Amino acid sequence: MEKGLRRVSGTEIKPEERQAILELHAKLPGLNHFELLGVDRRADPARIKEAYFELSRRFHPDRYFGVDLGDLRPAIDAIFRRLKEAESTLSDPVRRREYAAAHPEARSAAQLAQDEITAKRRAERSARLRRLDPLARRALNAAELAARGRQQLESGSFAEAAATLSLAASLRGRSPELEKAAAEAARKAALEKARGLLKSAKRAELAGEFEAARGHFLEAATIGAGDVSLQLQALNGYLDRGGDPAGARTLVSGLLAAAPENADAHALQGRLLLAAGHEKAGNMALDRALKLDPNQPFARSARRKPRWPFK
Amino acid sequence: MSVEPTIGIDLGTTNSVVATVQGGTPTVIPSRTGNRLTPSVVAIAGNGKQLVGTIAKRQGIINPEQTIYAAKRLIGRRFSSPEVQEAREVLPYPVVAGEHDDTRILFGGTPISIPEVSAMILRELKLDAEAFFGRPVEKAVITVPAYFNDAQRQATKDAGVLAGLDVMRIINEPTAAALAFGHGRTITGKLAVFDLGGGTFDISLLQLKKGVYEVIATSGDTFLGGEDFDSRVIEWLVFGFAKELGADLRKEKMALQRLRDASEKAKRELSDARETRVDLPFLYTMPSGGAALHLQRDLSRDKLQELTGDLVERTIRKTAQVLADAGISPRELTEVVLVGGQTRMPAVQEAVRRFFSREPSKGVHADEVVALGAAIQANALVSGTADILLLDVTPQSLGIMVAGGFANVIIPKNTTIPTGASHRFTTVRDNQEGARILVLQGDEDEAAKNELLGEFVLTGLRAAPRGEVEIEVRFDISADGIVWVSAEDIETGLQQSLQVEPSGGLTREEMEALTAQRDGDEMVAPKAQPPSPERLEWIRRLVEEADLLLPEVRPTILATTFGQDALAKAERTIQRARDASVGDDAVAVEDSGAELEKTLALFQGILQRSRQETGSR
Fold this sequence. Notes:
Chain A is mainly α. Chain A has helices at residues 15-27, 33-37, 45-59, 72-91, 93-102, 109-132, 134-138, 142-154, 158-172, 176-206, 210-223, 228-240, 245-258, 263-275, 279-292, 297-303.
């Protein structure tokens, strides 16, 4: 309790104390509550209180009782009030949330944790890519990659464009445009590949290599999502060549979701269901196909019912 | 450099204690006669000699009219206040009115102020301290009940100054108790101080960590203490005496004084014993003469508890309320400290134990702990180190009066000081020239029920329709509790300010006259306050009623001499209320609604009369 000398009224303030008060007072407007208290943005109420208590020891006017503060008095009063304001705001969950909303740089603890993880992951990924890919290492910046990718896209090298653009997107960080361009390139590349596979399947069919044909048909249908007629061709080819109906079921559902008004798709579903032994459901699907297109060949032939004589 | 001594003083209702910090240890300074407690009693003996403390108390029985005790109950209060009037009934010494409705006591033939009485006690304590240190002592911290208002604090400070002390700070008794309790212990967490002293009850909640004491909330009752417990015993004895012997002791000052001492003694004894006997021989002689009557009665602990059960209940109710206000559950507390002599009563301890579901801490000397805490704060203030820091709060809300006679809080109670806050207000009249700022302290909605700390008028407002001139009223409270109020016309920068001084010079009538100007020309209203749903509903119903009645009364009104004018005026009033009922200005709703109510009363009168006329025809 009796450390050091006691003060007598009218004592002068120490120069370093004066300096500390003036400096903090000057900085007050630029500091958010977290910075003022010197706490982490995720600090819990106990930590907030502790920081407030510690700073109060230095900046409560009573610390300088009997000291001739002069022009420093308003400054130290202002500092303490801000400390109290910071503490009471951050100790109240509701007010803390409001404050965080009004001060985006002082976001909530959970958001900040999430942000941090995302940022860390992104950095790791770029680092890994830079380490592995010679192209990425050579490219001085993502912009260069992006430009190259767009060129490849235009020249029709979809697969390369997709690779370059996704690399550029991952290097640049959050860039919706690049990501969109990369996805577009990837889609085009996939369709190109699917068309190639369809050709190979038909070639295999002609050569009598039905097993290879089934595999190509199924793969073409899988990666050809987005091109309905290609998928229909591929799936019908797959079933024509004795493919397992179960292997096509998911693809057909996807197809129907993409083209709900397509009679051929409904007919295909009917075919699939009949092949799997679900007669009632299969017929219903075929009826839907006929409703959309009365001339749908498969459905017409399959639903041609024998007319029973009533007598 | 030689160290200047500092002292802490617990200026109690019944007893006072002075303490200091020596070699890092808080210690009570014994009186020159060797007592640790000094009775808060002053007297003028038959020989004209002024007596203070133990000797004053000792001769009280034979000199009741010139033996002043419990002056703390009167300090800082107006003579006309109900508290003082009530106290006059039971105090044997003459309490009279001063020139400005201040309270005075006829002491040795002259009316002296209450701070002067308290100063006599403080001077005695100062002398004790000086004898102890062997040198002059000036710097002091004095404690007051947490719920003392500004006037009471100021009067206590005045008493210190009159006694030749440099009062560095006035602090709250429970806070001081917490400082003493925390001294030398490492307590982290929340602490409750339950302080039931001679005259007052205080409950305070504090948060402690490494020498920083933060007051979270404080509340209390300035008219609930050990003396109320004594009074219950006295009443019981007086009643029994009257029933048994047919003698009324209530007007016998000397007998009452003996009863008071005996009751207090019996009460104390029952803290340890289960039963005691009040024995007062030769207490009273009938006016008709005859032998002197003796009083002899057995009092059990159970009987005492029965007599005072509701007082204990009141302390618990207040405690529950302050915890609820602070949003703290009784179980969250790390310690509950009992302070004040009355907490020795087993029934009080039991009630506290039950409420908090924990054993209250008794590691402190209930009579001395407050003075020790005051000494710790005094030492901390002058030491210039940051080992002990007290973060104190405003005990009551501060605000101003607004139109309608309501109190508008600007700094709510239990706000950590130093602090500052401002609110915006607007004018309530067209071309209003001035804004009258009445500074209020207290927690009542009605302005008149609060303490008036001061007033000033911001004049020279620019001419503008009502509601257009904006006035910012700002309150600042420094660490030592001094209040500054300023009002500023936002647009012109015109400013007025006031440092709040004790307003003891104001009579009850003046206060009433001031607060009666609730509709005066210089009132202000809170800025852009939307009306409450209830008030909107109220004014809507008024407008509906007016719409219904108007067609019925129209012919009658038109038939009178000023019919046209009167009807036009009524229609204007209704229209104004209709506008307000869809607007968002609470003041407009109140004003136009009140106007419309008058108009409606008029309509009712007209209708009644016309019905009577048709009936009589």
